[in-house]
Amino acid sequence: MKKIFFLILIILGINCKTNINFANASSEEIIYARITTNNVCFYSAPNDSSALFYLPNSYFVQLLDNAGEYYYSARYLDLYGYVKKSEITVVKGTPLTPFAEKISFRVISLNGLELRSAPKSSSPFEILDTVPYLETDLVYYGNMIGEAMVPECTNVWYYCKYLDGTRSTMGFLYSLFCDKLTNIPTNTEILEIRTEPIFVEPENTGAISTINFSSPTQILIVVAVCMPCLLIIYLLFKPTKITNKEGKVEKVKKIKRLKKSDYYEIDD
Prior knowledge:
Elements: H1 2-27, E1 31-35, E2 41-43, E3 51-54, E4 60-66, E5 71-76, E6 79-84, E7 88-91, E8 106-107, E9 113-116, E10 127-131, E11 138-145, E12 156-164, E13 167-174, E14 178-179, H2 215-237, E15 242-243, E16 249-250, E17 254-257, E18 264-267
Antiparallel strand pairs: 1-4, 1-7, 2-3, 4-5, 5-6, 8-14, 9-10, 11-12, 12-13, 15-16, 17-18
Helix pairs in contact: 1-2
């Protein structure tokens, strides 16, 4: 009976490890959504007033989690922010080229160009840095409509990263004083649209929910489960010894059969 009980414990331990691994695999699924129009914004916060730039049409964002009723938290290139749920199309699979990468341009203002915290020509805004003339060490993310710095000219600004040695600064540059923007080709990859819900919040039904642990926590749990199992297996198959009344270990007596006889003799 004891052996059956121990074996049940071992099976439960193995099943626990399997469930942890399955939950971890599900939580690590990477989900992408496609940009299908020219006016999908990437936001720094889940509200309309925090728009940074328009995402390039035909490319993708990686979705990370729900951020309320109307937004997903998302990643585009090395930026983390938000997109509106109603403006993107969730897809199955992983695109080969999810983001428009290696897009750059240069500054052609003779006195340099102010990198601003907002696409505005009037206050309030903050001057984050000044990008020098003919600087090309710039990473382009997208453009944003703002205030025209020069009257009756364009109101388009570039949201970008300025790389100055080991330092990098993100902000807006007025596009009138920039040129040689890399052409962004259309992404022609075909991916199936995902119709099932994603990032569904668990309902509080009183049932035990699945908990997704981090990798170090999983390792500790698996070790904690396996060590008792190994000890139980050792105890089940450990050789037994006979002790006499004085506590001394005695060898198990062997019974041998004498040749051509009808009786057995105990060999001490």
